Amino acid sequence: MAKKKLSKGFEDLFSQNETDLSFLDAYGKTNLENVPGLPESSQNHQNTDELFDAILRLFKSEKVSMKSTKKKISLGKFLLVHKKNNQIEININSERLSLPLVQSDLMSPGFSDSHLSEDSMNCSVIIDSWGIATKNFISRIIEFYKNNY
Fold first, then answer.
1. CA 146 → CA 13, 59, 92, 103, 149, distances in Å?
2. In this structure, are residues 98 and 120 in contact, taking their beta carbons and an 8 Å threshold?
3. pLDDT above 70 covers what percent of the chain?
């Protein structure tokens, strides 16, 4: 059986579909380092105080009954967010149900070190930047807490 030959190569398709978008130059250059909503790179380490404040704002926006100081946020024995050694450490200890997490949830950009117990009852995470993955992680834990504790 003869091989099918493509009628056009990549270069042909690219040049055929190339569009001049010169009008975009009117908007100027974009600083992509801190664009809200974009995933952060693993090299983008943020200030610990900013990270802690972002996490605290998220807890407050979810109207969760918590205790907080300048260095800690806690939800009883269930969760502890701790600012130490220029990093944010989160420890979760579920005594009732398995956490709604799998190991791949903890390998996203923004996490520098994480551990999930085999039974999914305990989790520890080091967060070094704020972004979609870290916000979703904390939101999921808050929702789990609100529904089960």
1. 52, 11, 14, 22, 6
2. yes
3. 69
Please name each of the domains of the chain with its CATH number. Answer: 48-148 (3.90.1150)
**Residue pLDDT, tens place only, 55-73:** 999 999 999 999 999 999 9
CA–CA separation, 9 and 123 (whole Å) = 50
**Residue 84's pLDDT is what?**
87
Token digits of residue 119 = 């039974």
CA atoms in the 13 A half-sphere facing the CB of 59 = 20
Burial string for 59-76 (b: 16+ CB within 10 Å, else e) reads beeeeeebeeeeeebebe
